[in-house]
Design brief:
Length: 555
C-alpha cells in the first residue's frame, strides 16, 4: 500500500514537472498551454516518451480527479442567467451550427469505416466531438487580440456557451446509448432534473449562508466548494448518473448566484493543478504516431474548418449580421473542444468507442489548436479574402441599406465618426451630456451591427461600413462632412492604419477637418505632417487627466 502511494505521488510529481517544462516550450512557440500539458504526458508515457509513468491505476486516478474538476470549473462558467439573455439570433446560430456540423460529420466520416451500431458508436462520437470548439483556446486568443467584445467575438462566445449546453445534453444520454429505450431515457432525464433542482435549491438556501459565514476565510471557501463538488458527484453516481455530470451540475448551481465569481477566483489554483493533470494523463495515453494517424488527423482538422464555414457563414448572413462577421466567427471556432476529450473519455469508460478514435481526436485536436493560433491571429485578413471571393460572384454584405442617410428633418449629418469603440463611445456620451443638439448631426460608420439599435434610439445615425475598404465611404454621404473623426488607434483597426485612412480621407473630403488617432507622440507627429488637423493620443490624454487630478489634490 505504501509502495502504491509513493508510486502515485511520484507519477503526479513527474506529471507536473514535465507539464511545466513542456508548457514553457510551447509558450515560447506562442502555442496554447494545453498543448504543453499534453506534450508533457507524451514524454512521460511508454508509447512515445521516456516511460517514466507506467502504472495504469495511477493514470486513471489522476485522469478521473482531473476530469471531475474540469467539469466542475466548466459548470462554474456556465451562467444560466446570461444564457437566458441571449437573443433569438444567437440561439438560432448555436442550434444550426451544432446540428449541421453533427450531420456533416455523420455523412463525411461514414466512408472512413468508423463503426456504428452493435454497441459501437465511433461515428456518432466522432460527429459530436468535432462539432464542439475549444472555449479555453478561443477565449484566450480573442482576449489577447482585444476582440472579445466585437460582433464576431460575441457571436463566437455565444456559440461556445451553447455548445457546452449541447455537450451536457449528450452526456445525459450517454449512459443509455447501449439500450436507448424511452423509459430509460426518461428516467435519466428525470433523475438529472431532480438532481439539478436539488443542487440549485441547496445552493440557494444552504450554500449561500455557508459562503456568507466563511467569506473572510479563503481556505474555508475553497474547501466548502470542493466538498460541494464531490457531494453532488456522489449523489449523481448513487442516482445512476455519471460522477462527471454531478460535478458539472455542482458548478452550475454555484455559478447561478452572486458568489460564483468569487468561488471561481479562489478555485483557480486548484483548477489549474487538476486540469493540468487531466491533460497530462491524456498525453500519457497517446500511442506512437503513424503516417496513417497523422494523415487521418489532418483530414479531421481540415473537416473542422470546412464544417464551421458551411454551418456558420450562411446562418450569420441570413441573420443579416454581415458576411465578414460570419467568416470571422467561423474561423474563430475552427478547432476541437477539450469537452470533446471529456465526452470521449466517458465513452471509452462506457465501452461505446474503440481506443483508436480517442487517439485520432486527440492528435487532431493538437493539430487544430496549432492551426487555430494562426487562423485567429489572421482571422480578419482571411475573412476579407473570403468576402472578396463572394463579391466576385455577386454575393455582397446585406447588413443595412446605406444609400439614404438623411435624418427625419431633412438634414444630412456633417460630423462623421469612423468606428465606435472605447474613445468613440466616450465621445458620444459626452455629446449627450454637454451638447445633445449635436446628436442629429453625427453619423457613425462601423461594422458592429449590435450598436445600431441603441445608437439610433439615442438620436445618432449609424450606417454599416468597413474602414478597411475606404472606397465604400464614398457611398455613405460623408462628402458634406465638416469634421471626420477616427477614434480608433492602429492596435484596434482591422485591415488598415490611420496613415492609410488619412490618405483616402484627404481625397474624399479635402475641406473637412480630419481627426486621427495614434499610439504615441512619434506617430502623432507623422499624422500631423501628412495632413491631420488634430491627432488623439489616448495614453497621453489619460496621463494629462491623471496629472491634473494629482495637482488638484496633492499640489
Amino acid at each position: 500500500m505504501e509502495h502504491q502511494s509513493m508510486t502515485l505521488l511520484t507519477d503526479i510529481a513527474f506529471g507536473i514537472i514535465f507539464a511545466a517544462l513542456a508548457a514553457h516550450i510551447v509558450r515560447f512557440l506562442k502555442q496554447p498551454l494545453i498543448l504543453g500539458y499534453v506534450l508533457g504526458g507524451v514524454l512521460l508515457g511508454s508509447h512515445f516518451g521516456f516511460g517514466l509513468v507506467t502504472n495504469e491505476q495511477s493514470i486513471e486516478l489522476i485522469s478521473e480527479i482531473g476530469l471531475i474538476f474540469l467539469l466542475f470549473i466548466i459548470g462554474l462558467e456556465i451562467n444560466l442567467r446570461d444564457l437566458a439573455k441571449m437573443g433569438r439570433s444567437m440561439f438560432t446560430l448555436g442550434i444550426v451550427q451544432f446540428v449541421v456540423c453533427v450531420l456533416l460529420g455523420l455523412v463525411f466520416f461514414k466512408p472512413f469505416g468508423f463503426g456504428v451500431g452493435n454497441g459501437n458508436f465511433d461515428l456518432l462520437y466522432m460527429a459530436v466531438a468535432l462539432a464542439l470548439s475549444s472555449t479555453l483556446i478561443v477565449v484566450k486568443l480573442l482576449h489577447d487580440k482585444f476582440e472579445i467584445h466585437t460582433v464576431s467575438g460575441r457571436l463566437t462566445v455565444g456559440v461556445l456557451v451553447l455548445q457546452d449546453i449541447w455537450a451536457i445534453a449528450f452526456m445525459a444520454f450517454q449512459p443509455n446509448l447501449l439500450s436507448p429505450q424511452l423509459g430509460s431515457i426518461l428516467k435519466s432525464l428525470g433523475l438529472g432534473f431532480v438532481l439539478l433542482l436539488t443542487a440549485f435549491t441547496a445552493s440557494r438556501y444552504l450554500l449561500s449562508r455557508l459562503f456568507h459565514f466563511a467569506n473572510k476565510s479563503p481556505e474555508l471557501i475553497l474547501v466548502t466548494s470542493i466538498a460541494w463538488c464531490f457531494s453532488v458527484s456522489g449523489l449523481a453516481e448513487y442516482a445512476g448518473l455519471s460522477k462527471e455530470m454531478g460535478a458539472l451540475i455542482a458548478g452550475m448551481s454555484i455559478a447561478a448566484f452572486p458568489y460564483g465569481a468569487d468561488v471561481i477566483a479562489k478555485l483557480s489554483g486548484v483548477r489549474d493543478f487538476f486540469v493540468t493533470l487531466f491533460f497530462v494523463s491524456l498525453g500519457i495515453k497517446v500511442p506512437q504516431p503513424t503516417w496513417q494517424l497523422l494523415g487521418t488527423s489532418l483530414i479531421v482538422a481540415g473537416f473542422v474548418i470546412l464544417s464551421r464555414l458551411i454551418s456558420v457563414v450562411p446562418t450569420v448572413y441570413f441573420l443579416r449580421t454581415g458576411l465578414r462577421n460570419g467568416f470571422v466567427t467561423a474561423l474563430n471556432l475552427s478547432q476541437i473542444s477539450e469537452f470533446s476529450l471529456v465526452i470521449l473519455s466517458l465513452g471509452v469508460g462506457y465501452g461505446h468507442v474503440s481506443g483508436g478514435i480517442s487517439s485520432t481526436i486527440l492528435t487532431s485536436m493538437i493539430l487544430a489548436s496549432i492551426f487555430a493560433t494562426y487562423i485567429i491571429k489572421y482571422n480578419d485578413a482571411l475573412a476579407r479574402c473570403f468576402v472578396r471571393v463572394l463579391e466576385w460572384i455577386k454575393i455582397r454584405e446585406n447588413v443595412s441599406d446605406t444609400k439614404n442617410i438623411d435624418h427625419p428633418n431633412g438634414t444630412r449629418p456633417d460630423i462623421v465618426l469612423l468606428g465606435c469603440f472605447r474613445a468613440g463611445k466616450a465621445l458620444l456620451e459626452t455629446i449627450e451630456e454637454r451638447a445633445p443638439q449635436l446628436a442629429q448631426r453625427v453619423l457613425i460608420v462601423d461594422y458592429n451591427v449590435s450598436l445600431k439599435e441603441d445608437l439610433e434610439a439615442r438620436g445618432f445615425h449609424w450606417v454599416y461600413g468597413d474602414l478597411a475598404h475606404p472606397e465604400t465611404l464614398c457611398h455613405l454621404g460623408i462628402e458634406n462632412a465638416v469634421i471626420v473623426i477616427c477614434s480608433i488607434s492602429d492596435t484596434y483597426l482591422k485591415g488598415i492604419t490611420n496613415r492609410r485612412l488619412l490618405g483616402h480621407l484627404k481625397r474624399m473630403v479635402p475641406e473637412a477637418h480630419l481627426v486621427m488617432s495614434a499610439e504615441d507622440n512619434h506617430e502623432a507627429d507623422i499624422l500631423h505632417r501628412e495632413g491631420a488637423k488634430h491627432v488623439i493620443v489616448v495614453g497621453k490624454l489619460s496621463g494629462i487627466h491623471i496629472f491634473d487630478y494629482l495637482m488638484d489634490n496633492c499640489g
